[in-house]
Amino acid sequence: MHFNTPRPPLLEWTFLILFIFCFTWQGVNAQQLEIRIDAGAIDRNQSIVSFYLPISVEDGVYVIKDEEQNEHHLQVDGNNRAWFLISALRAGDHNTYTFDSNWQANRSAGNYEMDENTITLQSGQRDVLSYFHGTNNPPDKLDDRYKRGGYIHPVYTPDGVIVTNHLNAHLHPHHSGIWSAWTSTRFQDRRPDFWNIHNNNGRVDQVGGLQEVWSGPVFTGFRAKHHFTDLSGTEPVVVIHEEWEVRAYRSDESYHIFDLTSTQSLNGSDTLFLPEYHYGGVGLRGHGDWDDPENGTFLTSDGLARDGHATRVNWTHIGGESEGRLAGITVMSHPSNFRHPQPVRIHPEEPFFNFAPQQMGEMKIESGSPYVARYRYIVYDGAPDPDLLDQLWSEYAYPAGVTVLEINP
After folding, report:
1. Contact partners, residue 158, CB within 8 Å, separation at least 6
2. Sequence-ordered list of residues with C-beta below 8 angstroms from that of 359, at least 6 positions apart, any chain
3. Beta sheet of 371-381, edge-to-edge order
4. At the top level of CATH, which class does the domain 109-396 belong to?
5. 167 and 144 in contact (C-beta within 8 Å)?
6. What is the pLDDT of residue 29?
7. Do 283 and 352 contact (CB within 8 A), yes or no?
8. Are 274 and 357 in contact (CB under 8 A)?
9. How far apart are CA 367 and CA 192, in angstroms?
10. What is the mean pLDDT of residues 68-74?
11. What is the CATH number of domain 31-105?
12. What is the pLDDT of residues 205-253, one digit of tens each?
């Protein structure tokens, strides 16, 4: 007996062929890498490692497997740069991982919240920091000069304690959480002051909204642009285009960790001169409760307090009781920064701090030669742990070694 078996419609055959082709092509073209992480001379704990992949892959989150086939997350950005967190690796040891370009994972493990004016980066379910990509809301005592964005506030400890301040109508309202500006400058035949916006001859503003936002299990972050505008002439002139890259990393419950990279490029061909001065750059204004000098404290990597002003150090802590709870934040300078170790500005009474390389003499930002400053922030509850901060700075300054080899099929 003969039965006529109906043939699948042409469209179904087409989908079947495409499915077989895509499955086969994906398997054949999967690329594998061996990634070796070397601790080097120091112990690694929750250490941040980044490196460029030798093959081109889509940005996203991938699974990598260690020698015991345990799975870990590798986050890859749009520049083919991979990011990875080492939970623990003792000095002198190494770990080896396998990467397969087919092993993509869910990106949603990183978190942020955004509204029309701010983006809040999170580690797990805990807020780390907020950035004004729009504008703030000054109190009635402050005029429209203070209505702006382009800075970080609040910054939170793991327990949710706020350690920064802004828009304090009674004391330096131009100090805004973590922000970037130059004070003493010389441009053409003028001397714009981008720091003291109440003087009306210069300011810094966020422009264009967020350029990019990243999310993933290793870090969440953003890229944004600022304009340094000279108001001291007959017409406003944009002198500096600044780009911020901010990354908040997944961390344990003992501290938050985030990086800020500021890249400042001259607009035009006229050099911006930065004469010797005691402050200016990336500033930090601590919590309002620390305005009381008996409550606000400093500690540098050399063990100095407020007397550490103008010394050249790797890191500086600022802290105190914030609404009855002890908390602090440490700012670390990267060795690649100009004039590292950079001298610091520690205010004799107020909770203000910044690294100030111009204390060592005149600087300048020239056309075609951007000024890049890299800082890492550690935020914690309780008192600072100098040994831990030394270790974290060493991991920042001297990251683990990475060797990446392609695996031949």
Report:
1. 126, 251, 253, 254, 255, 256, 379, 380, 381
2. 276, 277, 278, 310, 343, 345
3. 202-214, 219-230, 237-249, 256-266, 371-381, 325-333, 315-322, 297-300
4. mainly beta
5. no
6. 63
7. yes
8. no
9. 18
10. 95
11. 2.60.40
12. 999 999 999 999 999 999 999 999 999 999 999 999 999 999 999 988 8
* pTM as predicted: 0.92
Indicate the domain borders of the chain. 31-105, 109-396
At 134-187, the pLDDT tens digits run 999 999 999 999 999 999 999 999 999 999 999 999 999 999 999 999 999 999
* The pair of three-digit structure tokens given for residue 332, joined into one six-digit string: 């670390």
User: What is the maximum span of the chain, computed from C-alpha positions, in angstroms?
Assistant: 102
- Cα–Cα distance measured from residue 45 to residue 19, given in angstroms and rounded to the nearest whole number: 44
Residue 108 has a pLDDT of 63
Q: Which residue has the tokens 């828009």?
A: 167
* Neighbour-count burial for 179-190, b at 16+ CB within 10 Å, e otherwise: bbbbbbbebeee
Beta-bridge partner residues of 74: 62
Other CB atoms closer than 10 Å to residue 381's CB: what's the count?
20
Could you give the CA distance from residue 398 to residue 47 in angstroms, rounded to a whole number?
Answer: 11
210: which residues sit within 8 A by CB, 6+ positions away? 119, 133, 222, 223, 224
376 and 259 in contact (C-beta within 8 Å)? yes
Per-residue exposure over 264-277, b if at least 16 CB sit within 10 Å of its own CB, e if not: bebbeeeebebeeb
When the pLDDT of each residue in the chain is averaged and rounded to a whole number, the result is 92
CB 40 within 8 A of CB 401: yes
Number of Cβ atoms within 10 Å of the Cβ of 315? 26
Alpha-carbon gap, residue 149 to 118, rounded angstroms: 9
**Residue that the structure tokens 């620390």 belong to:** 290
Beta bridge partners of 406: 33
